[in-house]
Amino acid sequence: MARRRNRGRDVHGVLLLDKPIGLTSNQALQQVKRLFDANKAGHTGSLDPLASGLLPICLGEATKISGFLLDSDKRYRAVVKLGERTDSGDADGEIVERRPVPALDERRVREVLADFTGSQMQTPPMHSAIKRQGVPLYKLAHQGIEVEREPREISIHHIELLELGENTLSLDVRCTKGTYIRTLAEDIGEALGCGAHITALRRTGVGGLDMAQVVDMDTLAAKAAEGPAALDALLLPIGDALPDWPAVHLSSDASYYLRQGQAVFVPQLSERGLLRLYAGEDRFLGIGAMQDDGRVAPKRLLVQGGTG
Question: Annotated catalytic, 18?
């Protein structure tokens, strides 16, 4: 049987997409893939249709680092409406309960928010993409079916009150992967004694990436009309998508042996954990990890000919 050839261009890099409200992450991914005519693409963590903001799209060899971005910390801006709970935890759902909102001042709200910092167990909502026997929970929720969900350990690194409005809170949240901001908002509402749901959500950070270089869909479409070169100029080099990871520049010999799957010794290297590996100054090789014996071992490498 003949092997099916990949369709599209060999294009490598990371697009920092500003996902618009109303699109699923997969719909946004497919639009980007089509505009770039890329033969391979993947996103780095779903955003609900209600949410907007930073959605890194990995093209070509960059898909090899998508898992690392998926596992990284996230940052959000959220608007929370107090006094109403919905069946989905956000404004797309039906209101299931209304309660009066007590008199609140910023001091009281900040005291409650402080209780939500740190590690904690969080139960995923029914309206989520987590699968139960192969079926996403949100599909069961749409059928009125609720099943038991296992709590997961998450951590809220930082939560700040940006604005206290009339029955609303604007929050800045930095958290670990897998944190459901809708569930966090509901829990905050319960702690304030009135219930709550999300009315707006915007992701502003993924790992060391922020909104400084995001590209919206209108800009992307305009660049696509100019041709592939204009589009490709919007891409972040693969290694630059992990800016908070230490970079290690290898000699030609060390680069060769690393590509053969061997761990290599790098003189005077004191870094620990995961590393960005480069051949010379600027050719990105992939991801490595420091071993206990002081050598750097390959963990996820680009193919020969991949770009940085």
Answer: no
Which pLDDT band, with edges at 50, 70 and 90, does 269 fall under? confident
Is residue 64 located within the same domain as residue 80?
A: no
Same domain for 161 and 94: yes
Select which of 10, 37, 48, 282 is catalytic: 48
Long-range residue pairs from 248-252, CB within 8 A, at least 24 positions apart, any chain: 248/275, 248/276, 248/277, 248/278, 248/288, 248/296, 249/278, 249/279, 249/280, 249/281, 250/277, 250/278, 250/279, 250/280, 250/285, 250/296, 252/279, 252/280
Q: Which of 188, 218, 237 is a domain's end point?
A: 237
pLDDT in tens, 14-45: 999 999 999 999 999 999 999 999 999 999 88
Domain assignment of residue 2, yes or no: no
Looking at residue 141, its pLDDT comes to 61
Is this prediction's pTM over 0.70? yes
Distances in Å between the Cα of 260 and the Cα atoms of 54, 65, 80, 297 are 36, 19, 52, 11
